[in-house]
Amino acid sequence: MKLGRVNILLVGIFLAATVMNFGCGTSSPTATSVPITLNVSPSSAVILPGQTVQFSATENGASLSKPTWQVNKVTGGNSSVGTISSSGLYTAPANSGTTSVQITVADSARKLQSSPSTVSIFQQNNFQGGTVASTKNALVAQYTISAPQGAQVEVQFGTTTNYGLNTWTQPAPDLGGDVSIYVAGMRASSTYHIRGMMHLPNGDTLMDADQTFKTGAISGDLPRFAIQQTSGLEPAAGVEMLNLFEEVSKTQVTAIVTDLNGNIIWYDPIQPNEPFPMKLLPNGHILLISGGINAIGEATAGVIEEIDLAGNIIFELKQPDLQLGLSNAGFPITSESFVVPNHDIQELPNGHLIILASINKTLSGLGLVQGNVVIDWDPQSGPVWTWSTFDHISPSRAPFGTADLTHGNAVVYSPDDGNLVVSLRNQDWVIKINYQNGAGNGDILWRLGPGGDFTMTNGNAPLQWNYGQHYPVLLGPNTAGIFPIMFFDNGNNRLVDTSNDVCGTAGQPACYSSVPIFTLDENAKTANLVQENSLAPAYSVCCGSTNLISNGDLEFDVAADVNRQDVSYIKEMTRDSTPQLVWEMSITDQLAYRGFRIPSLYPGVTWTQAAIATAGAALPAKPVQVPPLKGAKAAGGFPYKP
To answer: By CB atoms within 10 Å of each CB, which of 24, 99, 385, 414 scores lowest?
Structure first.
């Protein structure tokens, strides 16, 4: 093949280049210089006059051995802008009108200087006020203010400038900066006054200017409440947290907190799902299982959520991810298994979640049986400990039949021994499981109830044992050894005598619900019936909760009384020899799975009834009359499986 003149020329150039690159005259490649960067940390701080901040300097990420520190480009600073030592300790001026300075580090030999770090010097007599903004929750505002190192911030709010209610107190960041607090506890479509309070480390308290905030309307249909209060008796402090089920339109709000007049002051718009259950966490968030009960009374798949007061999701665990996590961890999952979180969930001190869930399994001769699994779930890594009723409960004991063998409905952590107390409604047992903070073998340590491990020392057994119970409460201060326990005893199929005659059958007394308090001795296996609060003739065939509240009164939720169709009611009663009704909330056309008093929406804060009244002084009183029943619910009753 012939080459043209141009091609011959290109070949010659290529050969010459090859000789230059590979011959004895080859040159070394040129080194690439790396730019030098100086950095100062922290990048910002908010402090009071006279307070200090420790800074550090790096060069390309490595510690700078001999930095030259500057304040507003003055080496070492001065009395007007503050001083900084050779080790990077900045001290704000004690008496100066300076409100902001810039800290830099320099290398004069190489003519280098870092980007500045800004220090804001908080002036008590001239500070920037806070802001109030709306959130995704129509009843919740967000207050934000810049606070100095060591300060604490809280917010007052109410319908007038008398305010009345306070949020919790939150600290400024370690080096000062913005503090944001959700303001919750306000009624819908109302104007509130909001004012921040800042507590300084020197003991002074600063008041921000008053601001107003208009809450929005509630998204969804509202439940119907009726309130009754006995004149001359003051209900205990706090507000009511309601876990409701609405089974007709699925449009009514069900995750609710109300004041004791039945005004909704917080809600989570999770309809058509329902809170199953919902509880306030020590960090101020709400933990809930968003699920519920279908039309034939079966638990529907739940989503575990931790949300803040505005409704933002902090943590979420969906049912398929829960089941997959169990399978990956080696928990036996079969084709018919369907692990559904429901009825209860507990956060442990280490941040793990104890999840109570239902699970299906085919048993020889019995077919498909539903039991329970208890799961220790690390939010970072998944399941770390599991327990199944199929490993510990014999199907030969089935007071309610084998289709729903155990029907676990509550789990409680015992801090004294690190074990778990679980209510198995369909076994008529409250049991304690050897959990030992994740190191236990899962053995059942004891079973409280008929046919269990305890002897009732001073009660009328078997009549006063627990039957179909809900919501065990460890009253403390001990939770192991010898300690008190209470629960809502529904009374389903209560045995009325040693001949095992059942309540409600021919010739036998009617069934009734009660709230017993026992003192248990775990070693002697004795149960001393301290008090039985009989609710007869009330008989709640399902659900319910109870507790002793701050003033010593007893509160209980009668969710499904056969004598009051389609009405759940929550009562506060004195504990006198002749108990008196203090307060009652009736809820029509919704099932109150749980209803209980909480001190406020903020951990460590108690709202008295007087403070709540002050905060809502400008609002009209809530009507207490219940409208007539309507629709299918009036005749049909709640479709919850007992």
So the answer is: 24
In this predicted model, what pLDDT tens digit does every residue of 318-332 receive, in sequence order?
999 999 999 999 999
Instruction: State the average pLDDT over residues 182-201.
Output: 98
The pLDDT assigned to 205 comes to: 97
Q: Looking at the domain assignment, is residue 531 inside a domain?
A: yes
pLDDT band at 80 (very low <50, low <70, confident <90, very high): very high
* One domain, residues 210 and 240: no
Q: Which pLDDT value is given to residue 301?
A: 74
SS3 at position 9: helix
3-state secondary structure of 566: coil
What is the number of domains present in the chain?
A: 3
Taking alpha carbons only, the member of 153, 167, 410, 156 closest to residue 266 is: 167
- Nearest residue to 343 (alpha-carbon basis) of 533, 514, 434, 472: 472
Sheet holding 286-293, edge to edge: 274-280, 286-293, 299-307, 313-317
**DSSP 8-state secondary structure symbol assigned to residue 638:** -
Q: What is the distance between the alpha carbons of residues 270 and 292, in angstroms, rounded to a whole number?
A: 11
The candidate with the shortest Cα–Cα distance to 447, out of 522, 556, 345, is: 522
The pLDDT, as a whole number, for residue 110 is: 76
The better pLDDT of the pair 185, 294 is held by: 185
Q: For the residues of 155-206, what is the DSSP string, one character each?
A: EEEESSTT--EE---EEPPTT-EEEEEEE--PPTT-EEEEEEEEE-TTS-EE
Averaged pLDDT, 420-442:
98
On the 0-12 / 13-18 / 19+ scale of CB atoms within 10 A, 125 is exposed
Distance CA 623, CA 526 (A): 48
Cβ(133)–Cβ(127) below 8 Å = no
Helix (H) or strand (E) holding 13: helix 5-22
Residue 189 lies inside a defined structural domain of this protein: yes
- Give the angle subtended at the CA of 195 by the CAs of 191 and 201, to the nearest 5°: 165
Question: In the numeric block, which tokens belong to residue 168?
Answer: 């919790």
Among 430, 412, 502, smallest CA distance to 468 is for 430
Cβ 141 vs Cβ 213: under 8 Å: yes
Q: What average pLDDT does range 464-486 have in this prediction? A: 97
The closest of 429, 248, 278 to 343, measured between CA atoms, is 278
In the sheet that holds 264-268, the strands lie side by side as: 264-268, 255-258, 239-245, 591-598
Domain termination residue (choose one: 164, 184, 214)? 214
Q: What is the C-alpha separation between 42 and 175, in angstroms, rounded?
A: 9
Mean pLDDT estimate for the chain: 90
Q: 499-507 long-range contacts, Cβ below 8 Å, gap at least 24?
A: 500/462
pLDDT in tens, 524-545: 999 999 999 999 999 999 999 9
Give the per-residue pLDDT at 620: 52
Q: Domain range holding 95? A: 38-121
- 139 and 100 in a common domain: no
The first and second tokens of residue 463, run together, are 């009549």
CATH number at residue 465: 2.130.10
Residues 403 and 476 both lie in one domain? yes
In a 3-state reduction of DSSP, which class is residue 229?
strand
Judgement on whether residues 451 and 589 belong to the same structural domain of the protein = yes
Residue 88: C-alpha distances to residues 54, 92, 584 (Å): 6, 13, 63
**235 and 90 co-located in one domain:** no
Measure the CA–CA gap between 541 and 569, rounded to whole angstroms. 13
CA-wise closest residue to 613 among 160, 28, 19: 160
